[in-house]
Amino acid sequence: MVTDNKDATRSITGNGSVNTATVGIYTLTYTAADAAGNLAVPVTRTVNVVLDPAADEDGDGLTNATEISGGTNPYQKDSDGDGVNDPVEIADGTNPNNSSSFNNLNKGLVAYYPFSGDYLDRSGFANHLTPQGVEMVVGQNGSSSSAVRIQSGQYLLNNNMSFQLSENQDITILVWVRMDNYEHPYPAFVALSNEGATLNTLNFDMLRMGMTANRDIGNKFWIDHHFGRTFGNSVSSGFTLELGEWNQLGLTVSASGTIKLYVNGNLRVQEQKSFGALNTQPTQLILGHSFPDFYFNGALDDLRIYTRVLSGSEISQLYQQQAPPDTEAPIITLTGGDPLEIYKGSAFNDPGATVTDNVDATRTITGSGAVDPTIVGIYTLTYTAQDAAGNLAVPVTRMVNVVLDPAGDEDGDGLANGQESTLGTNPYLQDTDGDGVGDPVEVADGTNPNDAGSYNSLRKTGQVPTITKTFGSGTNQFSIDFVTIGNPGNPADTTGNPNPAGSVG
What we know:
Helix content: under 10%
Distance between the termini: 163 Å
Number of helices: 5
Mean pLDDT: 83
């Protein structure tokens, strides 16, 4: 508005412009002159074009106001350039303004669907899904509305993902899957391709990664995968998807053609494949459907897509973070027999045991107890194990019996240990019944070596054979034991004669 002391009306001239599409500070200048040619003092106005606090300039899921208050760049999804977008870092509790502060498990994440009551992409790339007839259900962790239930003919679609697939690009896909029904022999739960927008057509010049179950091989998790016109790249995990069970399935494809399949954090198979050239097409993600009518009937939860190959350790960590509590104990199985028997004096080598667990691929067994092979006895070895969740296995024991060698002669009396066992005599005593006559002598005499009242008095200690003479040869050979039995007529013989009357000499 302009006023003048004489002229009732005057025109104002303004110059300058404001571009509301570009944030900045703009200046508008207003001038005027009256009929007498007097110029008014120019007046300026400053116009600040700022970001709408409620809008999301970079499309990362954080409002401009949130970015400004948090110090992140509202024009960049990844303010610090560390490979993890700002909203993901905020959710992780890392610093989105520090390139050294990030969760490596989210590096290279280009699509993330936790299905927390919606179908939004939480990676910061806004690759949101359009649902077609699906519904929210209880997820694999037991939370309500945290998984998507898909029935035959239903699907979720993003027809133009924020990244381009190529034959020389690394990819990782992780998803929790629950099969509810095998209506189709090849139900596809995740299909990532560049075949374009048409669901029921096949572009032969495309890249494709389809995660499916294959009824032809026992409903096992596999991938149907080709690049361009290169086919035959299907890989089976060998893992059967049982109805009603949640499993985390993983796929990594390297630019060099290495394909790996994971189940519940564990590597199942690795194969090398060749890739062909392809045309550049928009990257399409379809959940629950694949060409031409490979319908999926089940539920999906926590889908992650990376443009890098995650390591086995990273995939295992992600599984452990999301897996339901492990309450199942490991199982110990003995290797070798029980009980075991070894001979006294021989070496003992524990054959050990093995342990299996429903979650952990490898577990350590702890053994307690010892075996002394120099002492006859019964020894007990106990094996225990614990899984990563702290579940204790039922202890398993092995009995080890250290026994005498049947062919040995423990007491050196000439009877083998096996003979003594059969006779019932003590293999540790030469004279089991203590009657003064050794066991082998009683056996030879036909008396009872286990009865102190049964013995040949001529064999009594002090009257044992002193000299054995052998006569003849061949079938005519015989032996005579010469013993001193004293003089029956003169028991108190003091003649000193080595062959007194009545002796055999």
